[in-house]
Amino acid sequence: MWIFHGADSSTRLWPTWTRWCVCYAAAALCVLCSPVRTHDACPASCACARDSGTVTCRDGGDSEVPGDVPDWTATLILVGRNISTLQRGAFMSNGTELDMTTLSLSYNGIRAIEPYAFLGLPRLHLLDLSHNQLESISARAFHGLPELRSLYLNDSLLPSAAAQLSNALSAQSLRNLHRLELAGNRLKSIPLVTLDSYNLHALVLVNNSIESIGWENVTNLYQLKRIRVYLSSNPFRCNCGLEAFYYWLKNSSQNISHNPLVHIHPSHFNNLPHLQSLALQGIDLPDIQIKMFLPMKNLSHIYFKKFQYCSYAPHVRSCKPNTDGISSFEDLLANKVLRVSVWVMAFITCFGNLFVIGMRSLIRAENNLHAACIKVLCCADCLMGVYLFFVGVFDVKFRGQYNRNALLWMESVECRTIGFLAMLSSEVSVLLLTYLTLEKFLVIVFPFSNLRPSKLQTGVVLASIWLLGFIIAAVPLMNEDVFGNYYGRNGVCFPLHSDRQEKPTAKGYSTGIFLGLNLVAFLVIFVSYSSMFCSIYRTGINATDLRSRLHRDVAVANRFFFIVFSDALCWIPIFLVKILSLLKVEIPGTISSWVVIFILPINSALNPILYTLTTSFFREQVEILLCRWQRRHMLKKDRKSLTSSTIYMEAPRAPSYQQPAYFKRVSLTSADPRYA
């Protein structure tokens, strides 16, 4: 209540009152003119999707958490914000709590988390702090998160923060934590003092430096019935210190894959009869044996690095990976295309070569020695068809239960025999093609030389080629200690590419055959046909009839091109696969299956066409045979028609011709003495 005493007092108070009114008016004007901002607006430099409740702030220059996060935010993603420190109450907007359930703070360069940094997020379910550089974590950093279910700290902890993590995770508010991920932090032990005080379902410790798991941690693991511990890529020491951990494994389902274990003793799993699932991904097992897994009677799921290992656990219901591209867990040939194609290729190869052998035997040959070489080549190629035929037969035999028989099949005499036949066919075919190419090269490039093989020389060369091919295919079978199971590396019994389990001698031998002998033979064929074409072209330049010369050159070029192209189509993919396997490049099994079923038999299937069916002489002889057959058929038909016509038109009558009596047989010397 204002009381004025006289005019002087009112005069003195008027300027003060005026100044106050002006200040209030200016303040009101500023408020009215300033931009209106509500709690529903999207923060600057952020992208908001209100329908899904997501706010994403990427690569901003701010070094603090946005303070104007909308009230409707359910998921907040902050990436690349250079937030060095998470301060107390960093997510409390004007002192109010948020209904946020997911918070991602990865790749922000966070170095320190202060106490109560996550206050105001009582309903947060997932917190991702991965890929930061944490140096300091307060013991009360995670207080105020009673609903937190998943905490990700992958690749975030420096040594100082790793030492503080155990205290930070002991907060009472983390009792509902279900999943804790601590991958890639170089931890040497499990950073939880008492695991039994948590409700963990999954503990991820992948790619750390854990060498052993102490008895105290194993004791805590016994208290958690549903927990799954992921321990991939840890340098475990295989010693007695892991005994308690292995005993715990017998009643659990765990993942110890991708660990650099050099050797697993055959009796390592003897005390795990109740184990139901075992993960060994990323672990090479060069000394794997079938007796390793037999004690685990209840094992239903097993996970290996390679499909070939599955054959050592035939009693397990499910094994992954379940295919190598060639075979699968159920079938020798993994898919229907391969199953059908193996029969088609076998039929084409066998029928084509047998047809050529038969036709070459019936038709008069222009060059008997060359024809003999072609028939021998067809015999070698026919063996490839026999190989494919038996692969198809055993695929049908093992249909639906291949893994139970895989190991027995790959170590069987049958597998080694058909592998031997495939190698014999391949090498004899390569050597014969090289010999035929060189023979043709001498005839065309040096037409006036006397370098023509005789019948004896040709026979010796053919016998030598078969003997050399037999030796090449048989050597790996002579000493299993040196070569191992050379042909039983996969379900189709052909040693196409190398793996870690292959013995060094076998790897060197295979490399010498495919990248030595076969590569040299292919280069000889390529260079020889190129030289032959150049020689024919130079010879034809002086021809008077330009049109006939062009037709002849085009025909020769086409023929030579397809011969070289078929060889390249067959061998270049095989060379590439072999080189990549030597460079330890991972080759998909699907490629290997297509190479074995389609590419390897290409030469065997096309050789009859290229060397017989497309030659002009063979076509002429076939046309002559067809004309003769057609003429005989027409004559026989006409004779039959004439006979039936005569019988129909003439009535039967008594024979008027009396057959003369036979003369007495007299020798030439008794009839005429001059011949005595």
Task: Characterize the structure shown.
It is a single chain. The chain has about 675 residues and is α/β, with parallel strands linked by helices. The chain has a domain of about 290 residues: Rhodopsin 7-helix transmembrane proteins (Rhopdopsin 7-helix transmembrane proteins, Up-down Bundle). It has 16 helices and 16 strands. Strands 1-2-3-5-7-9-10-11-12 form a nine-stranded mixed beta sheet, with no helix packed on it. A four-stranded parallel beta sheet has the order 13-14-15-16, with no helix packed on it. A hairpin with a 4-residue loop joins strand 1 and strand 2. Helix 8 runs parallel beside helix 11. The protein is elongated and about 115 Å long. About 30% of the residues are buried.
Task: Please give the structural blueprint.
Layout: H1 6-33, E1 47-49, E2 54-58, E3 75-79, E4 85-86, E5 102-104, E6 112-113, E7 126-128, E8 136-137, E9 150-152, H2 159-168, E10 179-181, E11 202-204, H3 215-223, E12 228-230, H4 243-249, E13 253-255, E14 277-279, E15 301-303, E16 318-320, H5 336-362, H6 368-397, H7 402-410, H8 413-445, H9 455-478, H10 480-483, H11 504-540, H12 546-582, H13 589-599, H14 602-613, H15 616-649, H16 668-671
Parallel strand pairs: 2-3, 3-5, 4-6, 5-7, 6-8, 7-9, 9-10, 10-11, 11-12, 13-14, 14-15, 15-16
Antiparallel strand pairs: 1-2
Helix pairs in contact: 5-6, 5-13, 5-14, 6-8, 6-14, 8-9, 8-11, 11-12, 12-14
GO biological process, one term: adenylate cyclase-activating G protein-coupled receptor signaling pathway
Signal peptide: 1-38
Protein name: G-protein coupled receptors family 1 profile domain-containing protein
